[in-house]
């Protein structure tokens, strides 16, 4: 137990990027990507990593298990939480997935709102109470650290939620989380709800109260803050605010609010704020979810001054128009780090400074790509290296690979592409296609080569850094057999980046469609829904 845990003003940061965040439409992270994010979250200093929902699929189970087995800093290993509905098979799967973690937690939940109990579960309050009790007791038989969430609490009757939470505490729950599942509450109401629970359940003083707020009305951070003012000492949040629908409370915003205005709340976290920008970039890159330029804390413009008056003030004295320092969130990281003649050892060392442990064949691949890029770019920056290393993680589980392409394009003529793709069985497939532009013709040729008629839903290309020689990073979202999934690719040539992103999205969406079909077969028509 760390000294922070005895500090009454310490707010635990529970990161749910890999669970609630991963439920955002189109996000499909593989195990290697989830593990990389988990390592970065640990460097960021979050207290709890919710690694996933193990019952949902074998892939989810494996990802949670690999994070539970990861080599975190033994001096400060994060708690690894696994989600489970209040049902025995879920609790058992969660317990198995986190059993090797240094500090395992099972997070079980069931709704207490009548809207959910009556309409969704066709159940009764008595049944829900009994299920909550049984699930917490079951989880407690595996781990000491059990979190219970009365889902949709903010639309549930206070007295009934209090009765269910009291039962959960009696069965051994150590954290009681109060979800604003549909992002409906307001700061005053949420504060009063939590105060009401403290009044009705004297034992609540003996456990940690937690917030879990969704952003449907843009109030997730404000509500989480209100919850902390009412006594919550754990905040559930996600990097870049990703999550179901409008997302969760954004981790970087709530952390910097507590950090910057600790003078008003008296509260603090253990987050290493200098790691915020890098964590945001990593999550954005691997999920394909772009961070809007004006996003608080980590947006490209969060510390940029456009108005002459503001620029003048900041040049004279930074605090005239800045309440935080860009370096305090790590937004100053894009300096030149390696030159064209740098060797393998320098690359390894620089990557380690950037937080990536890259060794063996992964280092060989990274070095080869670094040399290719260094030949084309004047400067290789920290951002370029991040883009390259994370790009290689994307190959795990990629059943199709984009091998080569050739495009003919001239004004007044429809562009024509020839591609070759390696199929899951190792065969090379070549095909041709024509379309509205060079990229479209490559996408059509890939569909012809793979025989998969996926529908393109999103296509984007962004520059990793500024400058004409910048690396291009492409993101593609495809839909196939009712599933959607994204893929990303990085290259100096944007057609190559786009083709790579498309083929990775294809691998992800085909895998998702196969998993969904298998789940339906196994459960005779009842796949496990995400919460
Ligand atoms: O939003 C929600 O209610 C959840 C629970 C599973 C905590 O994500
Ligand atoms: Zn949620």
3D architecture notes:
Strands 1-2-3-4-5-6-7-8 form an eight-stranded parallel beta barrel, surrounded by eight helices. A hairpin with a 5-residue loop joins strand 12 and strand 13. The chain has three domains: 10-287, Aldolase class I (TIM Barrel, Alpha-Beta Barrel), CATH 3.20.20; 336-393; 401-517, Alpha-isopropylmalate synthase LeuA, regulatory domain (Double Stranded RNA Binding Domain). The relative contact order is 0.09. It has 531 residues and is an alpha/beta fold. It contains 17 helices and 16 strands. The structure holds 3-methyl-2-oxobutanoic acid and zinc ion (ZN).
Descriptive key words:
binds 3-methyl-2-oxobutanoic acid; Double Stranded RNA Binding Domain; 3 domains; 3-stranded antiparallel sheet; 531 residues; TIM Barrel
Short overview:
The protein has helices at 31-44, 58-68, 88-98, 114-120, 125-140, 158-170, 187-200, 220-229, 251-260, 262-265, 276-287, 308-316, 344-353, 360-376, 382-393, 438-450, 494-522; strands spanning 12-15, 48-52, 79-85, 104-111, 145-151, 175-180, 208-213, 234-237, 336-338, 380-381, 401-408, 416-422, 428-434, 455-463, 472-480, 483-491.
Write down how many β-strands occur, each being a DSSP E stretch of 2 or more residues: 16
Q: Give the proportion of residues in helices.
A: 25-40%
Uncertain ranges = none
Spatial strand sequence of the major β-sheet = 1-2-3-4-5-6-7-8
Major beta-sheet overview? 8 strands, parallel, barrel
Do you know the CATH topology of the largest domain? TIM Barrel
Tell the overall outline: globular
End-to-end distance: 30 Å
- Mean pLDDT across residues: 92
Count of the domains = 3
| CATH-defined superfamily of the largest domain | Aldolase class I
CATH architecture annotation name of the largest domain: Alpha-Beta Barrel
């Amino acid at each position: 137990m760390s000294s922070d845990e005895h500090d009454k003003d310490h707010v635990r940061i529970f990161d749910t990027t890999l669970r609630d965040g991963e439920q955002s439409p189109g996000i499909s992270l593989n195990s290697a990507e989830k593990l990389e994010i988990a390592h970065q979250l640990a460097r960021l200093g979050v207290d709890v990593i919710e690694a996933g929902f193990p019952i949902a699929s074998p892939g989810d189970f494996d990802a949670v298990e690999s994070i539970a087995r990861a080599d975190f800093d033994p001096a400060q290993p994060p708690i690894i939480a696994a989600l489970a509905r209040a049902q025995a098979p879920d609790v058992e799967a969660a317990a198995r997935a986190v059993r090797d973690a240094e500090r395992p937690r099972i997070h079980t939940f069931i709704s207490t709102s009548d809207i959910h109990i009556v309409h969704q579960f066709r159940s009764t309050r008595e049944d829900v109470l009994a299920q909550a009790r049984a699930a917490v007791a079951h989880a407690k038989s595996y781990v000491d650290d059990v979190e219970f969430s009365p889902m949709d609490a903010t639309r549930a009757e206070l007295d009934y939620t209090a009765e269910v939470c009291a039962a959960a505490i009696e069965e051994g729950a150590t954290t009681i989380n109060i979800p604003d599942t549909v992002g409906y509450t307001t700061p005053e109401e949420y504060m009063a709800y939590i105060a009401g629970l403290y009044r009705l359940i004297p034992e609540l003083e003996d456990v940690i109260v937690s917030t879990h707020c969704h952003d449907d009305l843009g109030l997730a951070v404000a509500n989480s803050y209100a919850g902390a003012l009412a006594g919550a000492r754990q905040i559930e949040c996600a990097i870049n605010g990703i999550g179901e629908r409008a997302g969760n409370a954004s981790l970087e915003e709530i952390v910097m609010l507590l950090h910057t205005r600790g003078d008003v709340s008296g509260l603090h976290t253990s987050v290493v704020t200098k790691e915020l920008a890098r964590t945001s970039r990593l999550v954005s890159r691997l999920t394909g979810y772009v961070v809007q330029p004006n996003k608080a804390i980590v947006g490209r413009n969060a510390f940029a001054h456009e108005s002459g008056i503001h620029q003048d003030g900041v040049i004279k004295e930074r605090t005239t128009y800045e309440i935080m320092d860009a370096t305090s969130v790590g937004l100053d990281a894009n300096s030149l780090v390696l030159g064209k003649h740098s060797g393998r050892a320098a690359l390894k060392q620089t990557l380690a400074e950037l937080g990536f442990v890259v060794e063996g064949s992964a280092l060989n691949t990274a070095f080869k790509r670094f040399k290719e890029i260094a030949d084309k770019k004047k400067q290789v920056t920290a951002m370029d290296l991040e883009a390259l290393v994370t790009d290689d993680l994307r190959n795990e589980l990629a059943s199709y690979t984009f091998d080569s392409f050739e495009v003919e394009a001239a004004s007044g003529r429809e562009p024509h592409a020839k591609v070759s793709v390696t199929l899951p069985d190792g065969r090379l497939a070549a095909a041709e296609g024509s379309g509205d532009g060079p990229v479209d013709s490559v996408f059509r040729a890939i569909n012809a080569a793979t025989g998969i008629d996926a529908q393109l839903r999103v296509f984007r290309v962004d520059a990793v850094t500024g400058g004409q020689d910048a690396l291009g990073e492409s993101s593609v979202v495809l839909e196939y057999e009712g599933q959607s999934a994204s893929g990303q690719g990085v290259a100096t040539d944007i057609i190559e980046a786009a083709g790579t992103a498309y083929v990775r999205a294809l691998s992800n969406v085909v895998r998702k469609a196969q998993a969904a079909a298998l789940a339906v077969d196994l459960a005779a028509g009842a796949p496990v829904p995400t919460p």
